[in-house]
Each structure stands twice: as structure tokens, then as C-alpha cells.
């Protein structure tokens, strides 16, 4: 519940939540890179609102990925939306592209010791893909959301490994 954005939103039961996939609620544990990417790939397999893409590999050979989340109709028209966005960037006074969806880029976990950021990326992706409320549907119709869920996978895993190896089951309050 610590990462619940809004409690009164209903979700499509056919879409796996982060807690169902990981076996714990977001915020209870830190999640390794491969688990985050596994969950996001799973979302892309379950929904036509999201696609999963690899854009690079790190020095430690972890994937650097991005997601495109939008309505199925916008997914079918990504090239024309991209072209209209390019035209708007080069011709800001061109009113003909004002009806095109906006493009939003969200990046998470630039520093390895930002422990909650990739959990927030999973919750954001889940909300956009599975929420059934009218506000979320409006976002998907009017925007193309690109999410980079983990800019620094190597630093993230180093931090998660360190944290998990140094935590104790019983806290020592006498130190």
C-alpha cells in the first residue's frame, strides 16, 4: 500500500499487478533489474496498450529498456504521431498538429541508490496499462507515454545486492 497512487481506482483483473508478479507489495522490498524487466515484459504480453523495447546494453551486460504506453489506436499511428511531433518542434506555430497526442518521456533510477524509483516505474506502468477509470483512459488517448524504467541498471543492482546482503532480520537498536 505504500506505493498505491490512488486507492479508489479499479484495475483490469486480467492484467497482472506488480504484487502478483513479484510476490510482494511494492515498497516492501527492493526489486532487482531482471525482476523489474520481467514484470514490464509481462505487461507487454498481457496488453495492447504497451510495447517493450531494448535500446542498449550496459557495461555489465544488463538491458536498458523503454516502454511505449498509449491507446491501441495511437500504437497503430505511432509513425504519424512521431512525424507530427517533429513538425511541431520545427514549426511551433503550426496549429494543424494541435490535435495530436503529446509525447511524454519519464525516466527512472538514474542513480543506483534511488531505491524507490524503479518500483514507482512499475506502479506507473501498471496504472496506465490496467486502470479502468476515465482519467487514465483519457491520458492514453491524448498522450504517448515513453517510460525508461531504469537508466542505471548496473548501479541499481549493486545497491539492491548491497541492501539485501546487509539487512538483518532483527534490528540491533543498541549500536
Features:
175 residues; single chain; alpha+beta; four-stranded mixed sheet
Mean pLDDT: 90
Estimated share of beta-strand residues: 15-25%
What is the count of helical runs? 7
Q: CA-to-CA gap between the ends? A: 31 Å
Helix content: 40-55%
Uncertain ranges: none
**Largest sheet, strands/sense/barrel:** 4 strands, mixed
* Overall outline: globular
Task: Find the count of extended strands (DSSP E, 2+ residues).
Answer: 4
Give helix and strand order, one letter per element, not per position.
Answer: HHEEHHEHHEH
Rg, please? 18 Å
From the helix content, strand content and strand pairing, which structural class follows? alpha+beta
> Strands of the biggest beta sheet: in what spatial order?
1-2-4-3
Task: Describe the overall structure.
- With 175 residues, this protein is an alpha+beta fold.
- 42% of the residues lie in helices and 15% in strands.
- A four-stranded mixed sheet has the order 1-2-4-3, with helices on both faces.
- Helix 2 runs parallel beside helix 5 (117-130).
- The longest helix has 14 residues, at 33-46.
